Amino acid sequence: xxxxxxxxxxxxxxxxxxxxxxxxxxxxxxxxxxxxxxxxxxxxxxxxxxxxxxxxxxxxxxxxxxxxxxxxxxxxxxxxxxxxxxxxxxxxxxxxxxxxxxxxxxxxxxxxxxxxxxxxxxxxxxxxxxxxxxxxxxxxxxxxxxx
Length: 147
Prior knowledge:
This protein is α+β, with helices and mostly antiparallel strands. The chain has 3 helices and 8 strands. Strands 1, 4, 5, 6 and 7 form a 5-stranded mixed beta sheet that branches. It has a 3-stranded antiparallel beta sheet with strand order 3-2-8. It starts with 7 loop residues before the first strand and ends in a 6-residue tail after the last helix.
């Protein structure tokens, strides 16, 4: 399939696990009639790698500083009728290393929230995010994938 470059947005995000490996970081979006629950992600800026964007977006949206697992988990293509573009999202598995003191971006709209792994699939808004979580859990369980 061919996409017009002016109608594609490249983003990156991460599924961040807490230090126990039993919780994942989500962002609650309070806009609209029903809130959405997602993994933190955002647009890749000019001159920035996908890895750098994922780390920056997690910190800007949640205040969490994380470290990425060595390899990308997957790439997702989503149509976004709201912005009229196709989103290409690079996803990574990550783990918590600390917190930031910077003011959260869009803190009036988004709220960071740690969710127990066994409850995450129930609260995530997109079915693809549930599949992404399964991929990240599998990736982080591989002994050869240690950071």
